[in-house]
Amino acid sequence: MATEDPAVDAEPKHADWSIKEVGVLVQYLHDHHAEWGDTGNFCQSTYANAAGHIRLLHVPGKIKDHKNVSIKWGVIKQTYSAIITYHSKLGEHWDNEHGTNISGALAGENWSKYVAVKGNTLMRSFHNKGWEYINFLEDIF
């Protein structure tokens, strides 16, 4: 009688996203932005079609389904919102080449305090670089 090894998962529970997969997802949703719904999201069929499109890039790990795509889209929207809030509502510097362009000890200290606040952690990687998806998101919204 064969026993299954509990240390081996047939299907990972967490979907890890490669940079290429995220890029393809954003491009797909940008190309299909006419399917954007009144609720501020795409319909489930758009997410399912995007998952099928991304499947062509599959590497070992969880195969992305419509739910994984929907969750990832939520994170992408949160990142966009964090950038827009930082720049527009707070009146702080943002450009897509240098991000927030933090330089100097005092600016670095203030930046560290800002990103330490819950909800601002999505901004952490943009202290001196832009976000390659911002133009796509601006078009979608």
TrEMBL record:
This is Myb/SANT-like domain-containing protein. The lineage of its organism: Eukaryota, Fungi, Dikarya, Basidiomycota, Agaricomycotina.
